[in-house]
Each structure stands twice: as structure tokens, then as C-alpha cells.
Design goal:
By secondary structure, the protein is an alpha/beta fold. It has a domain at 23-120: Alpha-Beta Horseshoe (Leucine-rich repeat, LRR (right-handed beta-alpha superhelix)). The chain is built from one helix and seven strands. The protein has a five-stranded mixed beta sheet, covered by helices on one side. The chain starts with a helix and ends in a 21-residue tail after the last strand. This is Tsukushin. Pfam families: LRR_8.
Length: 141
């Protein structure tokens, strides 16, 4: 009987994790990384690379997203604060925007990304990257 109860508890936990992944934006891949005692803490890695033109920004992402890959999705023109806003963006630790056609980064584009440690802007059309005017920006030179 105890084994059956334990199996049911583990099965329901697995179902809860898989349901979180099912809420991933169409065309993206979401992987949940669980940590801690009984996997009580989780972070999501969202890969939307190659999503292609026609994607509207911001792309909806899970609230616990730590890593977001938006490489090669045909973002063109300036990167603005409205493109990186919404639920899930404030918890980002890493953001990959490589391989797009970003020409400039607005001064407040990264201001809401308080935990950002890694930003990849390689292979874009940036002429230069000015220091942001926002004191809350995680930008490091």
C-alpha cells in the first residue's frame, strides 16, 4: 500500500512538470530544470531559436524562465523595452539575441532584466553599443 501511495505521488509530480512544459509558446521548446529537496525549485530554459519572421515581441514565456534563446528569429531594427517585457522576462539570467538584425539597443531595453548575467548580441547589425542611461541595467562592459 505504501509503495502505491509513493508511486501515485511521484506520478502526479511528473504530470505537474510536464503540464508546465505544455504551456510553451508554439515553435519554442521549454525544458524545466528542477533543484532542491523533492525538486521544489525549478527554472525553465526556453529555446525559440529560428522561430522566424512574423513572431510578435514580446514572446510569452513561463514565469520561471531563467534562460531564453531568441537567436535567428528575424528581429530587425531597434531593440526596445517593450520587446523584452511581460511575465517571465524579469527572471532571466541569460538572453541570446544573436543572429538577428538588431541595429540599436534603446537605453531602457534591458532595464527590467534585473538578474541578467549573460547577453549575446553577436551577429547583429549593431554599429556600437552605448552605455545605458538606466542605473538598474545589468549591463557590464
Amino acid at each position: 500500500m505504501t509503495v502505491l501511495v509513493l508511486w501515485l505521488a511521484v506520478s502526479s509530480l511528473a504530470l505537474a512538470q510536464s503540464s508546465a512544459v505544455q504551456n510553451c509558446f508554439p515553435g519554442c521548446r521549454c525544458d524545466v530544470e528542477s533543484f532542491g529537496l523533492f525538486d521544489s525549485f525549478s527554472l525553465t530554459r526556453v529555446d525559440c531559436s529560428g522561430l522566424g519572421p512574423g513572431s510578435t515581441m514580446p514572446i510569452p514565456i513561463p514565469l520561471d524562465t531563467a534562460h531564453l534563446d531568441l537567436s535567428y528569429i528575424s528581429i530587425s531594427g531597434p531593440l526596445t523595452d517593450t520587446m523584452l517585457s511581460g511575465p517571465g522576462y524579469t527572471t532571466l539570467v541569460s538572453l541570446d539575441l544573436s543572429g538577428n538584425h538588431i541595429t540599436t539597443v534603446s537605453p531602457n531595453a534591458l532595464s527590467r532584466l534585473r538578474y541578467l548575467e549573460s547577453l549575446d548580441l553577436s551577429h547583429n547589425s549593431l554599429a556600437s553599443l552605448a552605455q545605458t542611461s538606466s542605473p538598474d541595467c545589468p549591463c557590464r562592459r
